[in-house]
Amino acid sequence: MSQVRVLVGTRKGAFVLTSDEGRSQWTVDGPHFPGWEVYHVKGSPVDPDRIWASQSSGWFGQIMQRSDDGGRSWTAVDNHFAYDGVPGTHQWYDGTPHPWEFKRVWHLEPSLTDRDTVYAGVEDAALFRSTDAGASWQELSGLRGHGSGPHWQPGAGGLCLHTILLDPSDANRLYVAISAAGAFRSRDGGTTWEPINKGLRSGEIPQGDAEVGHCVHRLAMHPANPRRLYMQKHWDVMRSDDGGDSWYEVSGNLPTDFGFPIDVHAHEPDTIYVVPITSDAHHFPPDGKLRVWRSRSGGNTWEELSQGLPAQHSYVNVLRDAMAVDRLPSCGVYFGTTGGQVYVSPDGGDHWHAIVHDLPPVLSVEVQTLA
Amino acid sequence: MPDPVATSADLRPRQQVRVVLPSPLRALSGAAAEVTLDVPAPVTIAAVLDVVEQRWPMLRGTIRDHEGGARRAFVRFYANGADWSHHAMDTPLPAVVQRGELPLLVVGAMAGG
Description:
The complex is a heterodimer of chains A (371) and B (113).
Chain A (H helix, E strand, L loop, with lengths): L2 E8 L2 E8 L6 E6 L4 E7 L7 E7 L3 E7 L7 E3 L11 E3 L5 E3 L4 E7 L7 E6 L2 E5 L7 E2 L20 E7 L7 E6 L2 E5 L7 E2 L20 E7 L2 E9 L3 E4 L7 E2 L12 E3 L7 E3 L17 E4 L7 E3 L17 E3 L7 E4 L5 E4 L7 E4 L5 E9 L1
Chain B lengths: L13 E7 L2 H7 L5 E6 L4 H11 L19 E5 L2 E2 L11 H4 L5 E5 L5
């Protein structure tokens, strides 16, 4: 019988939630690394027992953890993220130059083909890779060094590289997104990079259609159609059908197009999910009603999903890495909130229930589907 | 127990120094509430941390930066009832700490309220 293992990173530790394919009865294990911020936990698609976790603290900095037994035990691996060469400067909030300084790992993306290779997106924004199971990390410095780096500026959460997409059809093709710089693409395995932000319009920057400076909150891709990309920007839900060469807006009838996560159904490349948030100033759902919105047409036409979700007094947020899908025949959709709830819909979004109600604020949710 | 950092090139006299690490780092490393370390003289914070990081490599970067070795901003060092955080890392610690009569306290700065 299949199982799902939900990996939850929170402000005060990590939790592992497991269930059979019914996804109605759950075992909750944790907290792992209690008291530490866990920005992201993600398992290897090559070896599901190998799981990576980013553990950090304002006091004691960054710790990297690796499990080789499905999250039952953990080993601290190398935590030294050294920028390649002279780091230089990016823009500070006021537009002045500010030195690049490592703060934390936001996102981990294990290789699709090698259990010992994993990518790390960090703040201040840079992409690192380990090819030796976490024994060392090297920066893919062509990203920061391609030319626009000095013009990148932090979003409210910091200058973070929060999204890494690996193209399953082309090992040389990678995408990353940075708040607030935009989306970037490599076609040579991460050596060289280019901004891919044509079509984005952002009212928060002086030149709304600038090459960089856009606060991209999240990218998503379906493995069966990897040239189509979806984006939740600060404002606007966007889509690209040409691997990022150009983007167009698909916000359609959403009640608000501000939000953080966006994800794709496991078996339907045209079915996507977002969680609309009132505004950049009000990081909670409109009217206090927590809702997921689903489009079955790759955007533009959206339907509200509410069965089992709070209909009132919900003033939580869903952060950019806090939504995921499983790969069971009836695709499960999951998200975690800043109020500590983790919700699941075992039927693609039609019905929801809370797995847990009272975790610390949820920073990330990932799901492993286990045979 | 032989000191893991002692090398043939390091023939300096050594001191048994007591060190208390903050609880999050004890949980991370598995270190006891108080540890006694064999530290080469002169006993300074840098020398103590060299031994700590050799014995518990996962603590590298948690007390002082990987780059340059500066104290992390929210970590403090207390020795003999005094705040030693702003002394140079290579300043010899008070004699009572060097002799192991009092521990060097590595402390996470207070927060909350």
